[in-house]
Amino acid sequence: MSITFRIPVLALLFSGLLRMDLAAQELPHSFARPDQVVVKHLHLDLSVDFEEKQLAGAATLTVERRDKTVNQLRLDTRGLDIEAVSCGEAELDWALGEEDAQLGKALTINLPKYDSLRSDRIKIEYATRPSAEALQWLTPEQTTDKQYPFLFTQSQAILARTWVPCQDTPAVRMTYSAKIKVPAELMAVMSASNPQEKNASGIYKFEMKQPIPSYLLAMAVGDLQFRELGPRSGVYCEPSVLRRAEWELADTERMIEAAEELYGEYRWERYDVIFLPSSFPFGGMENPRLTFATPTILAGDRSLVALIAHELAHSWSGNLVTNSTWNDFWLNEGFTVYFEQRIMEAIYGRQYSEMLARLTLDGLLAELTELDERDTWLKLDLANRNPDDGMTAVAYDKGYFFLRMLEEEVGREKWDAFIKRYFRKFAFQSMTTEGFLQYLEANLDAGINLKAWVYSAGLPDNCPEVKTDELAKVAQAAKDFLGGQSAERIQSSYETADWTTHHWNHFLRSFKTADLSIAQMQDLDAVFKFSRSGNSEITHDWLWLVIAAEYKPAYLRLETFLTSQGRRKFLQPLYQKLAETEEGLIRAKEIYTIARPGYHSVSSSTIDGILGVE
Ligand code: BES
Ligand code: ZN
């Protein structure tokens, strides 16, 4: 009895310990075990097939053994068809694990026994499927110029694994190279050294010498042209977009200079931007050396270029010092919003950047009322959830105000020196929230209750104040309108002809709780021509009010906006607002049926959730 009892208890204890040990090494959102075997370099050899909507070829991974007793390499994949795995002449055994709804499948490869004289290069022959979530395959009709097909990737947060078998965690960095074959009339670009002209063979070679995490792997293929902006910057886009793109980005080189002046040398050699077709689901994505951007920032007045400052800032916060896990996402985004604001202040002045800060604060306060408490800590807990859930105003804007509070507390001079040192010291490394706080406490005598910001809900009382006379005037104008003044009167007494996009955003957002009547909507539209605005930010804010007030004359504009661009930030609030009424939901579904095939999976999976379809 005692023996039969004791053995299972011991066995249980032992396996329990083992499991704890395993769990301690496990990374959130990845099957990889870089503590055992880690990928140091990736070489991609792929051909791009628009007919089949398929990338096919091989990924060769150079790996390093960390635990010499383990002869297994574990990678992340999702929806990949693996054909064969080899090392030199030897075929290797491999297996795909069970499908996890969030994470996809682990690819486990049995490696040859460790040999200190040989570096392991593991070749994986594979192909993607048309449904690969990172990839959007556009027909010619879905592009701006409607002549050629287009392909682009979006790897952040955990979609790299849908087009490359890799250790898909921000805790691992690798260098990469690639040889990409595309149809001869198209050009390929990547988050790496890039061509500036098409070549007749359709074969392009790339190299990224600085080690990067997998979420920064990126590629775009299309009828691209390049135009220089400055000595180390330029822009890629479809031919008809080139002139507008070049004009809008005229301040790019100044931004790079301002950023370097603030926080140290730009470490990636070139900084280029590519404007993608309008279905790109984000405003921007900080792919190293080549920011991916939405064409919806081409406002014609340079009013939306803070987005470029933001993606450029990621060249330090995020791409140099990288959030270790997606729970530490604020280290990427909060720092980047802070840095973006500093670049904007340096170039356009404090009055301008304070307007941006005010809009940021208002957005944050609104969003805080809607989120679950736990999701309002800076340090997130995204276990068993899609890391996309962490993309809220908390990481971005609570993160920003936390850093701004620290700046105001210790003074700009000390603070800037600290941040500059931080980027230099941890360059090309990943960082946890705890690591940052430790470094902060050791190097800055701030004497501040950090925990109230990082490990607590909401916005602490010592949140900095934002003062902007400009937007205070705008708020007064909105009040006057609600008090009965006509739009024409507002126009003349506030000289709205001089207002920027940010003034208009503030003006329109003041009405979100106002229940505007149809007559008021008509008056605003007649005088300020909102339904005809070519500015995406103003259009978005206006259309939200259009839905709220059921202002029918702008319904057609709403439809065209929802079917002509796929930026999730614009789609989500509008579909959500529509879905609030029964009639609105029916219209939303009608519009979505037409629009969905044009959206990237990042946007369509969010809207699917809102409308309860698929
Ligand atoms: N890295 C983000 C985009 C992202 C975050 C993609 C998480 C996937 C998962 C990018 O830098 C970003 O923040 N873009 C913003 C623009 C910015 C000005 C706030 C966007 O796209 O709205
Ligand atoms: Zn960002």
Q: Compounds present?
A: ligand BES, zinc ion
The CATH architecture of the largest domain is: Sandwich
Whole-number tally of structural domains = 3
How many alpha or pi helices?
19
Query: What is the fourth-level CATH superfamily of the largest domain?
Result: tricorn interacting facor f3 domain
What does the largest sheet look like?
7 strands, mixed
In angstroms, what separates the terminal alpha carbons?
56 Å
Q: Which overall shape is indicated by the principal axes computed on the Cα atoms? A: globular
Approximate helicity band:
25-40%
Q: How much is the average pLDDT?
A: 95
Q: Radius of gyration, Cα only, in angstroms? A: 25 Å
Structural class: alpha+beta
CATH topology (fold) name of the largest domain: Immunoglobulin-like
CATH class of the largest domain: Mainly Beta
Give the low-confidence spans: 1-24
What's the count of strands?
21
The proportion of strand residues reads 15-25%
Strand order of the largest sheet: 5-4-8-2-1-11-13
Quaternary organization: single chain
Question: What order do the helices and strands come in, and which of them pair?
Answer:
Blueprint: H1 2-25, E1 37-49, E2 54-65, E3 72-77, E4 81-87, E5 90-91, E6 94-96, E7 105-110, E8 120-127, E9 135-138, E10 150-153, E11 174-181, E12 187-190, E13 203-212, E14 219-222, E15 225-230, E16 233-237, H2 242-248, H3 252-263, E17 271-275, E18 284-285, E19 290-293, H4 306-313, E20 321-323, H5 329-348, H6 350-368, H7 393-410, H8 412-425, E21 429-431, H9 433-443, H10 451-454, H11 469-482, H12 487-493, H13 501-509, H14 518-528, H15 536-549, H16 555-564, H17 568-578, H18 582-595, H19 601-611
The chain binds ligand BES and zinc ion.
Ligand BES is lined by residues 156-157, 282-286, 307, 310-311, 314, 333, 391, 569.
